[in-house]
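Example record for the data management plan.
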Amino acid sequence: MSEPTSAFVHHESAGDVALIRLDDGKVNVLSHEVIAALHESLDHAENEAKAVVMIGRPGKFTAGFDLKVMQAGPESAGRLFRAGMELFLRVYEFPVPVVAACTGHALAAGAIWLMCCDVRIGARLNAKIGLNETAIGMVMPESVVSIARDRLSPRHIQSSILLARLYSPEQATDVGFLDWVVAGDELEEAAVAEAAGLAESLSLSAFAGARRVIRGPVAQSAREMLNHDTRSFAVGLP
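Corresponding structural encoding:
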């Protein structure tokens, strides 16, 4: 049964898999309220599940941070950016596997979220995925660049960040935002099946240990950059 964490975030269980669903009925923006609700759902998953699926609404994974907050001033933008990055880094270091079911557009913060998940399955539809900060007048924070260097193909780092390229779901598999795509009506089933397979096949203690070895240094570096990034994030906001 689906349980609401907030008006826009619901969590449910499918065996050993926790399914966390974001659906605000619009474009799935990330506000402080939504971020807090996602943390609460992750708390449940950490205690109860062996794998997690994070899924958006049809056509929209997320359009990124709430523009009303981002445009309220540098301090407001910096606080929301930091809250979002703390959520994404939690996902990046989560002690059980996290599968993203990318239901559609994933821009800016949405693309960062995808980079922080372990397996990213996208819906095969007309959607755009990518880091568009340079196109809207923002300098990419160093903490985000450190994660991009870890998760994206080296061939595409420059075009993704400097040139703000946006990609179709099929193109995004080559870039590194997604791992593979399926038909839209098969996405949720495919994501839950992948998460259930990981829950069954992996030693979670070994997974958590390997995660610390592989991702710990990157996460620590990103966190060390956050104070500077928070102060400078809104510089150049239109």
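Summary line stored alongside the record: The chain is about 50% helix and 20% strand.
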